[in-house]
Amino acid sequence: MKFNDAGSGMMACLPTVITPTMKKLRSRKWPTLSRAGFTINTPGPSEPKPHWFRESIKHPAVLVILGFILTGLIGRWLADVQDEKQRQREAVVRSMDDLRRSIDDLSAAFSGYFDHAVALVDLMEKGAPADKIEQARTSMDAAREKWDERLAVDGPNILQRYPVNPDNTGSPNIELLLNDIELGTSFIESCIGRGTLEKREKPILDHRYQLFCHDTTQKNSVDAGYRLTTTDVCLRMFARLMRPDPKNDFSDEPVDRRYQQLTYKTVQTNCDLQYLTGLTDQQGHPRQ
Q1: Is residue 247 packed enough to be buried (19+ CB in 10 Å), middle (13-18) or exposed (0-12)?
Q2: Is 266 within the bounds of a domain?
Q3: DSSP states of 184-239 as a string?
Q4: Number of structural domains, the chain?
């Protein structure tokens, strides 16, 4: 150990000898590395760790659950939309059915009144016994009460579905039409109650008399049969032309305006009060 220590110390004390070979090696230019031709992998920002939510929704079981939930929500929304449309369609059907029922009831009530009134006038013009005439008058009065009842109930219901002011629609004034029809019925009653039975020159179908009305300023008298017939035609026109067709309840195509105006004009012409009472003809000219 001492020898080694002494030897180490001696080696340390020896001077460094630079040989010519060492000088040559030191003076030699060695090649150095450059970045040319190399791809330098510079460290970028570290990728974030995957979030638990993004990873969990990729799981098949989670996807199945989300599918059920979304299907239920969308299906429920579509069902609600369809239910709302169905309710609207049902409301339209109920409204239109109610209108058709009102027009039908009104027409049926007048038809009953018309039949009893014609029967009474027929007995009066045949010169039937007073008891039969009185019995027929009682039946007519009962039918008139039913007719008045339907006017009071169905009239406002019909008015709600048609415009009162026809200026921009070309439709008739339903309120005016119903008023004319009601007044026309009153003039029939007036003719039957206050008219004059005049003897015919020749009987027609056992009708020895003719019941004339004298409740207007018309020079040429109008008979009761005329008023009954014109008012009946008016109601038939009203029921046939103003009653909406069920196939058009959900139609988006507008009704031809020319046909619509022609239809309404026909109703107005046949239900005009002056025409119903016999003052004018269908063209509006005074009757000669």
Answers
A1: exposed
A2: yes
A3: HHHHHHHHHHH-EEEEEEEEETTEEEEEEE-SSS-SS-EEHHHHHHHHHHHHHHHH
A4: 1
pLDDT tens digits, residue range 84-123?
A: 888 888 887 888 889 899 999 999 999 999 999 999 999 9
Please classify residue 261 by burial: count the beta carbons closer than 10 Å to its beta carbon, then call 0-12 exposed, 13-18 middle and 19+ buried: middle
- Supply the DSSP string of the chain, one letter for each residue: -HHHHHHHHHHHHSPP---HHHHHHHHS------STT-------PPPPPPPHHHHHTTSHHHHHHHHHHHHHHHHHHHHHHHHHHHHHHHHHHHHHHHHHHHHHHHHHHHHHHHHHHHHHHHHHHHT--HHHHHHHHHHHHHHHHHHHHHHHHHHHHHHTTS-S--TTT----HHHHHHHHHHHHHHHHHHHHH-EEEEEEEEETTEEEEEEE-SSS-SS-EEHHHHHHHHHHHHHHHHHHHSPPGGGTT--SPPPHHHHHHHHHHHHHHT-HHHHHTSB-TTSPBP-
Instruction: Judge whether 34 lies within some domain.
Output: no
* Residue 201 buriedness (CB in 10 A; 0-12 / 13-18 / 19+): exposed
Instruction: Note down the domain range covering 153.
Output: 98-244+256-277
pLDDT digits (tens, 9 = 90+) for 162-208: 755 545 454 567 888 899 999 999 999 999 988 888 888 888 888 88
The CA distances from residue 242 to 153, 160, 170, in Å, are 18, 14, 13
